[in-house]
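Database export, one record per block. Field names are fixed; values are copied verbatim from the stored entry.
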Amino acid sequence: MTQTADLLALAVTALQGADTLAGARVYSARTWSTNTGQYPLIYCKAPSEEKESLSRNGPPQFNVVATLKICGRVQVGALPDGQSAALLEQQMGALGQQIHVALINNPSIQKLIQRTSFVHTDQAITQEGSKETGEVEVSMGLEFYQGPEDFYDLPVYDLDTLGLTVDLVNRFDPAGTYADPPFPDAVNAAPRTSGPDGRAEGGLTITLNTES
């Protein structure tokens, strides 16, 4: 069973073990510190998931695409002549490529998914006081399958006995009324020109072997 949370956790582990500019500073929502103050760093999240049904009348089956977003952030002090932006672009480019290498075709992730349906990368630079911060965001669509075993667990009952009762259509009492008919909703009211009339013309009881 594959869940989006599993893929997110694997991505964090893979990035923590990879040789990126962020080193071990890789966080998810559970470990993120708003006052980390240390750059470069990577923040991982899985903000969306879409299920596409594969069945119409049968058990639930879906192709699921989880969107994994990896945000890498770098920061430098203000430098003259636009050198800050140039340095940030170099670091963002390097960090983005390191994220690609760490996650695309990663064996731990690959064994849980059918394919990586898309990879999209954005970069942005913002001014924070005397420092400039660059962010590279890598969005990945991870596709995997979910079947009925991943959802509500329907109750299962053992079948010990099978009973068959027959109330025929072409053998009937035109006028009789009988108490406790085997198929009350199917009985034609008297006077009738065809059955069922509420009488069982035959039956069979099968006791199943539950020991084998």
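Remark 1: The mean pLDDT is 90.
Remark 2: The first helix runs from residue 4 to 17.
End of record.
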